[in-house]
Amino acid sequence: MILPLQARLADAVRAAARSAFGAELGELSFQYPKHLELGDLALTAPFDLARTLRRNPREVAEQLATELARVPGVRRTEVAGGGYVNLFLDRASFARELHAARRDPIAPARLPGHVIVEHTSINPNKSAHIGHVRNATLGDTFMRVLRHRGREVGIQNYIDDTGVQVADVVVGFLHMEKKGLAEVERIGGKFDDYCWDLYARVGDFYAQDPARRKLQAETLHAIEAGGNETARLAAHIAARIVDCHLATMERLAIRYDLLARESDILRLHFWERAFELLKEAGALRLETEGKNAGCWVLTMESEGSDEDKIIVRSNGTVTYTGKDIAYQLWKLGKLDRDFRYRHHRVYPDGHVLWSTTSEAGFTPAERGGVLGGAPLTPPSSTKTEAGFTPAERGAVLGGAPLAPPSSTKTEAGFTPAPVFGHATAVYNVIDVGQSYPQRVVKAGVAALAGPESAAASHHLAYEKVVLSPATARALGYAVAGDEGSVKVSGRKGLGVKANDLIDALVAKAKTEIDARDPERDASEKEGAAKAIAIGALRYFLLKFGRTKIITFDMEEALAFTGETGPYIQNSVVRARNIFAKLEAEGHRAEALVARGAQLDLGAMLEGAEGDEAWSLLVLMARSDEVAEQAVKAEEVSLVAKHAFAVAQAFHGYYQNPRYSVLHAENEDRRAFRALLVDAFLRQMEVLTALLGIPIPDKM
């Protein structure tokens, strides 16, 4: 709501500067004065313009203020201080437009291009833990904000099913528990928890005899080679644990569009092609002496250890960084290769989760024959040494590759998959410890695809999550008396499994509900407890800046007061209850809201109550501006804190008994306040949806 007004004001300022001074102004920004008597918006451009023109800033401000006063929606302007222009908005028209925009929202114009957000990307060797939940919550929320602001976004979850972590679990099954594929297939229960414990024991297994480390390398080679019992066991482990991770994230309303498997990157020769191109570009060098002899290392003119720049180890295995370069090039449409695709699952609401495959499926080139183009050509004949032909690449750009017939056949034919690559921007949510390797990936992209593609590669780094001593004890961990926080380590088996944490939060929320409302229906209690727990967890993980270490505390997260998810949820529930009570007392809430929209809102927004209501309205109007700032800064905590500020302003307004809706002094005042409640509810529906916070019927 505020952005279109700012755009009109900026146009007026540029036009005034052009006509009065013959000057061209670039991007303009507006500030928000701390006190209403200083206006609703403030413009500082006169200072910059005066510096360029060598004029007095106040004289420039007076000229601009005159022009701004003519802009629709501006009540008056005044020049303050040495050259500020303070703008006072037309409260009545602004309030009416804001409410109308909330009742009948218009989606922002779709921006060109396709954006990829990769998040979660947990090694498929054990249960997800709280750090993984922070990753997934950040990525999921950033996706929601991007889509809200008009971007087309695809969500990808990278499955490292050929890495050392999976190899370690395979070593554990084969060499510690003496179990082959058939025995592992028969393991029931929580398979991800089983592997969590096994993975921790493998570390001790290696420590007892360092010579056992060779088992890891041998297993890794067998997995990468494929077509053997070791590789089949690894594939089974990874597939089962990925489904466990998907179930965990579904509890948090986190879903994906594509599971991109590392094994397919290797088997479809993405890495081989990228390796070839990097060597041709002179971006790699083969070390011939020293500790890295025999390794291929990326040439970079920057600080950092050579170990981080190793792309291929001396034993011939590819590092994570090397595979990440190939994957990033594919995401950006800069690698002349593509995956085959298949359905992984269809969610209850019809959303399709796709998976890459190197087995049965259609390549982009083959797609044309199914959809009515040229006859299908066998895959072996559609490739050149460089990859896809121009016509084939056009199929990727102009349409969607198909999944295998077995998973996509319908009565009407084949269901086309979305286009997953060819992004104009890629955001990778990866922990801050991988910051330098991500710079290496960016350097590899720059070497092959140029600086523009490198600039389109974004690393959303985030810090770790630790536990407060009280929360660690509540979850069954031994805590020393002097520990200020408890660190977690999945490799050592020390950490909070995501499901255990969610279960504990639900149980604690249910206990609180039981104490407050023991007569409530059991199923209602369960639903409310789940919603409160998810809201508490998501908000706690989102309210801090990405690069801040979080000390998670269950009591703090679940509190109904302070900056918490339940506080935000409670504000919405309270607003709904106002309407419910109105209806119970014989008032029609919808009719009151309609009446409120027809009032003289200018008069209603005067005086002490008018000022408080106006501050709430202006704050709500800034939501899209904050969302856009979050996109540019790559920082979703801005949206979280804004949602809390709106909830806090609402609480502050309606906690004043003089502003009661139920006991209003007259029907016009009741209608005005009902209008504000309606605007707040509609705004919070947007904000809580962006944050992924569910709203229970009752707290």
Question: Can you characterise this structure?
Answer:
The protein is globular. The two termini are about 30 Å apart. Helix 1 packs across helix 3 and helix 15 crosses helix 16 (about 390-400). It has about 700 residues and is of the alpha/beta class. The longest helix has 25 residues, at about 665-690. Helices cover about 55% and strands about 10% of the residues.
- State mean pLDDT (0 to 100 scale): 89
How far the N terminus sits from the C terminus, by CA atoms, comes to 31 Å
DSSP helix fraction: 40-55%
Extract low-pLDDT stretches: 364-414
The number of helical runs is 30
Q: Beta-strand level of the residues, as a percent range?
A: 5-15%
Question: What does the main sheet amount to?
Answer: 7 strands, mixed
Q: How many strand elements? A: 20
- Main-sheet strand order equals 11-12-7-6-5-17-18
Class by helix and strand content? alpha/beta
Radius of gyration: 29 Å
The oligomerization state is single chain
Shape: globular
